[in-house]
Amino acid sequence: MAALPTVRWGIVATGMISSWFVEDILLERQDAKVEHVIQAIGSSKLEKGQEFKNTFCPEQNPRIYGSYEEVYSDADVNIVYIGTPHGYHYRDCMQAIAAGKNVLCEKSLTINAKQAKEIFDAARAKNVYVAEAMWLRHRPLFRELGRLLHQEKVIGDVTRIFSDFASGVDIESLPPTSRYRDLTLGAGSLLDIGVYALTYTLLALEGDAPGRSELPRILAAQSHEAGIETTTSAIFYYPSTGRQGITTCTTKTFGPPGEVFAVIHGTNGFIEIEGTAPSIPLAFTVYAKQSGIPERVYFPKESFQGKRYEFPNFGRGFVWEAENTALDVLNGRKESAIVPWAESIHIMEIMDEIRRQGNTVYPGE
C-alpha cells in the first residue's frame, strides 16, 4: 500500500477547540487519505503547550513554542490551525499569512465582514490558502441534506425554515476575561453559536451554492446582559424567491439534547433535523407528501442506534474538515470549495446587519 501524503500542522492556542481538533485528526482511520502530523504547538506559555501535547497528542513529537509567531516562522509547518477566540482571528490570520503560511481558522472567521475581506486580500497577495473552519459544512450529513434539498428536491421547492441554537451560559458568574464576557474576544451568542443556526438557514433558503450575491431583507432583535448579547432573533426574506426563515440563538438556556432544532418546509413536505446540538447534526427525517412514509437519514448508518449515536473513528467530527483542508493544500488550491471566501464574507455581512439592528458593537468597529 502506498504511503499517504503527509500534512504537518501548526496548532495556535491550546484551548478546548484546539484539543478537540487535534484529538480528531490523529484518530486511526481505514479510509484516511492524509497522514496528519502535529508539527508545532504555540501557546502563551511553554508549560501550557507541553501539557497540551502530553494530554492530547502524546504519541506525537511537536515543537513547543511559547508564542504564536514561532509557529508561523516554523519552516516545517504546512498549515496553521487557529483556535483562538473570534476577537483574535483577524490578528492571528494576518500574522500567519504575512509569514507565508496556509491557514485554517476557526469560525466565526472574524468580527465583521471588513476584517474577512482584508484577510482574503492578504491571502491573495501572498498566494496562500485560507479557509474558515466551519466544520458543519464539511459533515457528510450536512452535505447530503443540501443534495436532497436542492438536487433531488425531496420536499419540492423550499419555502421556509425555522432554526435555533440554545446553549445555556451563566455569564454573570464568569470572570471578565472569559470569552463569553469579554467584548474584545467577540463575546455574544450570534458569532459563537448563532452562526450554526444561520448556516442551516442559508443552506435552505439560498441553495447549496456558496457565495450568493443576494442579501436577504432582515428584521432582527438582540437582547443583552451585562453588556453582552445573549439572545438573537432574525427574520429573513428573499425577494427573488419569496422564501422566508426565522433563526434564533441564545446563551440563556439549553436546548433539549438529541431533539429537533431545525425544520425546513417545502411545497411537497418538510424535513426535521436533530442532534446533540446544531453544530453536531446526527440525523434528519424527510416527510415527503408523495411517499407518505418518513425517511430517516443518518451518518454513519452503522452507528445509529435509536437515540444513541456513536462515531467510531470519526471523533467529534473534525476529521472531514481537516482532511478536506489538507487535500486542498496538497493540490495547490487557495480556497475551499466547501467554504469559499465569498461564503465567509456573505455570512459575515448578514451577521453585521443583525448586529447593526441589535445594537451590538465590538471594540474598534
UniProtKB/TrEMBL annotation:
Keyword Nucleus tagged: no
Keywords on record: Oxidoreductase
Domain Gfo/Idh/MocA-like oxidoreductase N-terminal: 7-131
Gene3D superfamilies in alphabetical order: Dihydrodipicolinate Reductase, domain 2, NAD(P)-binding Rossmann-like Domain
E.C. number(s) listed in UniProt: 1.1.1.179
Record keyword Oxidoreductase present: yes
SUPFAM superfamilies named in the record: Glyceraldehyde-3-phosphate dehydrogenase-like, C-terminal domain (SSF55347), NAD(P)-binding Rossmann-fold domains (SSF51735)
Enzyme class: oxidoreductase
Pfam families documented for this protein: GFO_IDH_MocA (PF01408), GFO_IDH_MocA_C3 (PF22725)
Residue span, GFO/IDH/MocA-like oxidoreductase domain: 149-271
Reaction(s) this enzyme catalyzes, per UniProt: D-xylose + NADP(+) = D-xylono-1,5-lactone + NADPH + H(+)
Gene Ontology MF terms in the entry: D-xylose 1-dehydrogenase (NADP+) activity; nucleotide binding
Classification via InterPro entries: Gfo/Idh/MocA-like_OxRdtase_N, Gfo/Idh/MocA_domain, GFO_IDH_MocA-like_dom, NAD(P)-bd_dom_sf
Family classification: Belongs to the Gfo/Idh/MocA family.
PANTHER family: OXIDOREDUCTASES, TRANS-1,2-DIHYDROBENZENE-1,2-DIOL DEHYDROGENASE
Official protein name in the record: D-xylose 1-dehydrogenase (NADP(+), D-xylono-1,5-lactone-forming)
